[in-house]
Amino acid sequence: MHLEVEHLSKTFRLRSGFLGRATPLAAVSDVSLEVPPRGSVAIVGETGSGKTTVARMVVGLEIPTSGEILADGRALPVKPNLSERRERARLMQMVFQNPFLSLDARQPVGVGIAEVIRHHGRVEKSKIDARVSELLDAVGLAERLGRNRPRQLSGGQCQRAAIARALAAEPEMLVLDEPVSALDVSTQAQILNLLADLREQFGVGVLMISHDLAMVRHISDDVVVMHRGKVVEAGTVEEVLDAPSEPYTQQLLAASPERLSLSGAGE
Amino acid sequence: MTVSEFQAPRDVRLALRRVSTSLRVGSQLRPVVIEIDLEVGAGEIVGLVGESGSGKSMTARTIADALPPGAAVSGEVLLGGENLLAMSRRRRREVQPSIGMIFQDPRAFIDPLWRVEDHLTEGLRVHRGLSRGEARVRAIELLDTVGIDQPERRIHQYPGEMSGGMLQRVMIAGALSVEPAVLLADEATTALDVTTQAGIVRLLDRLRRERGLAVLFITHDLALANAICDRVCVMYAGRIVEVRSGRRIFDDPRHPYTMGLLAARPRVDSRSHRLPVIHGTPINAMDAPPGCAFHPRCPYVLPECRSQPPPLVTVDGGVARCFRAEEGAARLSASSHVGPQADVALAVSEEGT
Amino acid sequence: MTTSDPTLDVLLEPTEDLRHRRYGSRLLRGLPKVVVGVSIALLVVIVAAAILAPLLAPYNPNTPDLLNPYAGPGAAHLFGQDSAGRDILSRILYGGRLSLLGPTIVILIAFAVGVPLGFAAAYSGGWTDIGVSRVFDLIFAFPALLLAIVIVATFGTSFYSAVFAVTVTYIPLMGRVVRSACLVERQKPYVEACRLQGYGSWRILVLHVAPNIGRILVSQTTLYFAYALLDLAALSFLGLGAQPPQIDWGTMLENANQGVFQSATGVIFPALAIVLLVVPLNFVADWTLEYNRAREERR
Fold first, then answer.
1. Is the CB of B50 inside 8 Å of chain C's CB atoms?
2. Residues of A with CB below 8 A from B227's CB?
3. Mutate which of A141, A154, A262, A263 to disrupt the B interface (most B C-beta within 10 Å)?
4. Which of A75, B84, B134, B325 has its CA 20 to 30 A from that of C186?
5. Which of B51, B195, B267 sits opposite A46 (nearest CB)?
6. Contacts by B24-29, CB closer than 8 A, 24 or more apart
């Protein structure tokens, strides 16, 4: 699926007090980007950059103030009703930052995955259990773990389950909102490898939201840098990270721990 | 040799000697920190790095005297020579200002109903007996020291009006207000943006240079620790497994866990084909198997690793708790087993150094 | 703070203020199982005793013995006799029936009406929420007892009008708890994930949110049962609830009030009965919340 985001904007109206004036907050201003079929694009930025809001608008969790989102050239409805949401869910799925909170705490993870499969009605009832096992296997979870509830799994395992649930809808693109920032370093690497494998195996496109430039370098082909709601720089990963033209991007790179240098620090 | 014998800085402000902490789980006591030795001298930044279960947070809580009820601690926590663990409560309250502490979420520790001024002057008035006016002047100075602009204006603001980074600076100012000898920073920059983090870290660096503050910097980010610390201690399953000074921990790691941590992290500079993973997940001290706690996940495991606790071996610029500590990454990868662990071996040799 | 190990998470919760050592005793950290066990046992015993009153009561609770008013406890009358010489023990046993029936009806109706209203307010949002919340607020604005008196004055004093009065005040309480709990859940990513799929609001509510608030609901319901019991006893004490020959603990207290200096047993035993029900209920409500949460997270 070819995703095109055209001039997307979102302004929140923050009300102060009961009769206070509503102050507008421009979280996203005139953002355009594109994810080619099977492509991998990252939106990078710090807190308040608007990157998460863009992702949420793309999947339909926020209503844009203006702008369009096009899937294969067709504009997606701005205020989707239930069946429109379902259709969109078959095109793109989201994986959230906190693995424990993004799963229903009272539901065994396998049941949650089966529920998604049933909802989209693409698999015969009798074959649903088999499909759940396939998905668990694809994300590297032992089948018996499907009977566990989120709290009985580790963070990495939960995130795998969340990815399996996302894949259950057979989407053409995955939108990942800081998918590994809540996990340990060693687990992060495992999940990133998994994502790379899944991309090959299922042919899904990836839209990754992150603050971590190193991760973006590893997993994405193209990157969009956002700052205070606007796109500051965009291009391939090599272009932007090796030769950033914007001061903000340069600042971001200079601040990453590997490049950080304190005057006179060290031995 | 022990870790502390190796470290020996000139003016030791904080020292942990064979500190072990156990928590009450059900009716039993289970270890979370096992015999750690740590020293932080005046003007030094020492990093304590670990993932979840490593025991780094429990170490911080042991120093801060903030363990859950029923916990047991052995060993000594020496603050300027006095053992915190053996003190009376009253004495403990007296010396408390000598350890400044800053944590991950400043909003959890700063009363949102208090202005910045109230927060900063509390310590000064209670512990140093200053009057309101004197304390306010000092507070403005402190805000300036920590790099907050327009301190006379900021002093009247509420925490809710400030960003996370600024609030973290306020917290540092609060900790500094009573002139501590030691600063304990527990994941202090984890929740901050990378540019804000850089700012805070530079501030800490300046403070230790200008004031001789001894800083214990606890983090899960090995690259960050490497960038700012004079010495980095890596923890795994409740023990310190490697201590190195300078940049050596990055350039020449000697413990397989450290090597794995470094290899597993993507780099800003270059794309690796596939991230080498350390199979399995980090464990707590209480779940550690016999012998070396890391052995089930180690690609270079030897038979003795499974049964005997590995010794602390002196290496260039530090120590490492491994039977094979002297071999170094290049030799290890050449001699490693083939198989599922080959990922790690491959990456280590790709990294070269 | 979460770690990858659920066991450690339990130990680290609730988040502690690292600057202050916790000086409290172990008891305050959670209810020892003994206390909960005793509470449940007590509740079972009292409920059983009330149900089996006809079998257990030594006398007919309404048979007067005017020769021995306010008699103290003795071999024949274990708890003594009240102002009309009736056996207090028998009256306690029979009184328990109405004293327990009342709150049961209150809770059942408050649950049946309040919970759907709370759900509707939380989920439909907008005008439904505003409408429902304002009606609740209106009821909250009246002191419960005053409202009850008004209702009873309108419909006449009787056990059922007292129950009706108290129910009216409990519906919004239940509804508000449900609404708040639902709003909290609604913020969580798993609900957003459901919305993303295109699940309908009611489906999300019933299949996902409701099970997650179950624990809070059970705990609150238990607590409200205790409070409803107290409220109904208060109404009876004021003479606005059950009327003679009906017996409940509140009317017993009203009756014994006048002669308290002649015989304290008339006051002590009904009061004790109430306390022995309300306090254990509180412990059980607390336990439901704390212990089960820890168990869910640790398992």
1. no
2. 257-258, 260-262, 265
3. A262
4. A75
5. B195
6. B24/B68, B24/B69, B24/B70, B24/B71, B24/B72, B25/B286, B25/C7, B25/C11, B29/B70, B29/B72
Question: Tell me, what's the ipTM?
Answer: 0.88
Asked if residue A119 lies in contact with residue C198, where contact means CB atoms within 8 angstroms, the answer is yes
- Cα dist. B97→A267, B14, B174, B177, B185 in Å? 30, 14, 10, 9, 15
Q: Does A253 touch chain B (CB under 8 A)?
A: yes
Cβ pair B184, B101 in contact under 8 A: yes
Could you tell me the pLDDT band of residue C141, with boundaries at 50, 70 and 90?
confident
Residues listed for chain A: 267
What pLDDT score does B8 carry?
54
Asked if B68's CB is within 8 angstroms of C8's CB, the reply is no
With contacts defined as CB-CB under 8 Å, which chain B residues touch A219? 266
A–B interface: beta-carbon pairs under 8 A: 113
Dump pLDDT digits (tens) for C40-86: 999 999 999 999 988 888 888 888 888 888 888 888 888 888 888 88
HSE at residue B328, side-chain half, CA atoms within 13 A, is: 11
The backbone torsions φ and ψ at residue B73, rounded to the nearest 5 degrees and listed phi first, read -130, 140
CA–CA dist A243, C107 (Å, integer)? 68
Buried b (16+ CB within 10 A) or exposed e, C156-176: ebebebbbbbbbbbbbbbbbb
Question: pLDDT tens across A60-77, in order?
Answer: 999 999 999 999 999 999
**Chain C residue with the nearest C-alpha to that of B24:** C11
Chain B positions touching A42 (Cβ under 8 A) are none
State pLDDT tens for residues B277-317. Answer: 888 788 889 889 999 999 999 988 899 999 999 999 999 88
Q: Which of B51, B32, B23, B25 is nearest to B281 (CA)?
A: B51
Residue B55 in contact with partner chain C when CB distance is under 8 A: no
CB within 8 Å: A46 and B51: no
Do residues A261 and B227 make contact, with C-beta atoms less than 8 angstroms apart? Answer: yes
* Nearest-by-Cβ selection for C190 from A83, A84, A104: A104
Which chain C residues touch B if contact means CB-CB below 8 Å?
1, 3-5, 7-8, 11-12, 15-22, 24, 26, 29
Compute the mean pLDDT over every residue in chain A, rounded to the nearest whole number: 90
Measured in whole angstroms, the distance separating CA B270 from the mean position of its chain's CA atoms is: 28
Distance from CA of C284 to the nearest CA of B (A): 21
Phi-psi region of A181 (alpha: psi -120 to 50; beta: other; left: phi over 0): alpha
- Cα–Cα dist C112/A178, whole Å: 42
Is C8 within 8 Å of B284 when comparing Cβ atoms? yes
What are the angstrom distances between the C-alpha of B42 and each of B10, B12, B79, B208, C211?
8, 6, 12, 8, 55
Backbone angles phi, psi at A235, to 5 degrees: 165, -165
Q: Which of B87-96, B260-269, C108-117 has the highest mean pLDDT?
A: C108-117
Task: Please report residues of C whose CB lies closer than 8 A to that of A91.
Answer: none
CB contact under 8 A, B53 and C3: yes
- Per-residue model confidence (pLDDT) at position B107: 85
Q: Does A186 touch chain B (CB under 8 A)?
A: yes
